[in-house]
Amino acid sequence: MAQQRKYRVGLIGAGAIAQGCHGPGYAKSDRVELVAFADPVKARHDEMTERFEGIRGYKDYASMLQEEQLDIVSVCTPNAAHAAATIAALEAGCHVLCEKPMAVTLDETDAMIAAARKARKKLMIGFTHRMMTGPEKCREMLRAGGIGKPFMMRVRFAHGGPYPGWAKDPDTFYRPEISAGGAMLDMGIHAIDLCNWIMGPVVSVTATCKTLLKRIKVDDNAVLLLEFKNGALGYIEVGWTSKPGFTGLELYGSEGSLICDYLKGLTLFGGKASAGQDSVAEWQTLDPTPTQGGWDTEIEHWLDVVSGDARLHMDGKAGRAALEVALAAYESSRTGRRITLGA
Question: Is CATH 3.10.450.50 correct for 129-292+323-340?
Answer without folding.
Answer: no
